[in-house]
Amino acid sequence: MSDRYAKYDKLKFDYPAERVLRITFDRPETFNSVDAETHTQMTDMWIDIDRDPDINAVIVTGAGKAFSAGGDFSLIESMIGNSHEIMKTWKEARNLVYNIINCNKPIISAINGPAAGAGLVVGILADVSIAGKKAKIVDGHPRLGVAAGDVAAIIWPLLCGMAKAKYYLMTCKPVSGEEADRIGLVSMCVEDDVLQQTALDIATELANGSQSAIRWTKYSLNNWLRQAGPIFDASTALEMLGFMSEDVKEGVLSHREKRAPNFRKDCPI
Predict the structure, then answer these.
(1) Per DSSP, which regions of 63-135 are E strands?
(2) For the whole model, what pTM was predicted?
(3) Which residues does residue 70 pair with via DSSP β-bridges, in sequence order?
(4) How far apart are CA 180 and CA 244, in angstroms?
(5) What pLDDT, on a 0 to 100 scale, did the predictor assign at position 71?
(6) Position 73 pLDDT exceeds 90
(7) What is the rounded distance in angstroms from the CA atom of residue 154 to the CA atom of residue 232?
(8) What are the pLDDT digits (tens) for 204-231?
(9) What's the confidence (pLDDT) of residue 2?
């Protein structure tokens, strides 16, 4: 493994084919949840990937039965009522999305189970997103008591339309791999036993194609996302504002106690 990625020790890196880099969320005991250090690493690594002259395509997947369960409770609880941590996380959440958008290499996600939160950012923002039939995609922010931030507002309406985006983002209902394919939320859904090989085949094809043509195509298409930058910035800022509220305390507690949340019914906004 190149020393280029040695510092990203919270993630697993390997080369499954020539000029193909594979990144694996590798905390299967927690369904590959993202702690504070992992969040920082998965934000910063895209800059090194963009500059790496030895790779032409990237695969992202998860170890075990999950893609990534998103931010773990230790990360979430460190933010509640803590303006310093909120500002730090807001900056990383913003940079994570923009670093992926601006990374010149095509990114292929192999979504092999539950995908939520920060992990879902990579899964759904990938240039080619492939879901296994056991995939379960969910943006659970409102269930936690904060606005749907991360990558929701910048990409969901563009992929599956505003009506579906509002329904799934406000209700936090999970989307299966097959349903995600049907509504256009992912590029395709395949049988679970061929998911990884399908991702590798596509990555290899892209790695062997005209790199200037592929990279300029990605850059051009991602201008749709850059146009939505103000929408994304607002949604992420509102998500962070929610971490100063009473609702997020109840949201986290209800998750820990495995019960439905009891949010206040009145709201001044």
Answers:
(1) 70-71, 107-111, 114-116, 128-132
(2) 0.95
(3) 33
(4) 32
(5) 82
(6) no
(7) 5
(8) 999 999 999 999 999 999 999 999 999 9
(9) 58
